[in-house]
User: Fold this.
Amino acid sequence: MANILERLEKVKGKAGFYYKNLVTKEEIGFNENETFSAASVIKLPILAVVFSEVAKGNAKLSDLITVKNSDKVPGCGALYSFTDEPTVDIQTLCNLLITISDNTATNVLIKHFTIEKISEEFIKLGLKDTKLKRLLFDSQASKKGIQNLFTPKEIGILLEQIYSRILINEKASEEILNILLQQQINHKIPGLLPDIAIAHKTGEDDGITHDVGIVYADEPFVVCFASNETNVAEFEQLIREISYELAG
Assistant:
């Protein structure tokens, strides 16, 4: 395990790491309480807020939202490619948000629930350092240095709560977990673990690559990798190697 920390110390730029064995409760951290520009990892706590609002009766997964042309943003996802303005239910938006990291689905949900409300719910979920400050692909906000943020440990704790079925309630935790298990962007944590179920969410941007998830090894564990201003290819290889070693 000491070797893992030594390798993380050598990473170009800023790296973060949080690991917890969900059987032995052993923890390892490296910059685990530092904030990182979140990229698409912010979609995981947004998903949690949506299910929290559903549990409170403030929304239904069957509620329909029209995706306007003005909502469409490029990058990951499918909704950007629609030539019309489709009406989509919240369940589908949640699936797209995670499984193919759909940026348009994310922005539609942010606008529907509002940054202010989502931020309030983050606090209630124990996410004090995880911040939603802007829509995705908001170039004006980005130029001003306004970024969405997360810490590896906060997201790790959130994942442990999902694993333990205590995030919001058992039903919500199960539904969130089932979406995370359908993740289609699988070249990082699962890269060398093709036969192990992994519930996870990635994030990517210029000089940024993250992956956070629950690995169902013989002894299941939570692991969160974060990086800013790094060599993406090198850090992703390190993610694959460390994940493989941790899975034993």
About this structure: Residues 2-247 form a domain with the Beta-lactamase fold (CATH 3.40.710.10).
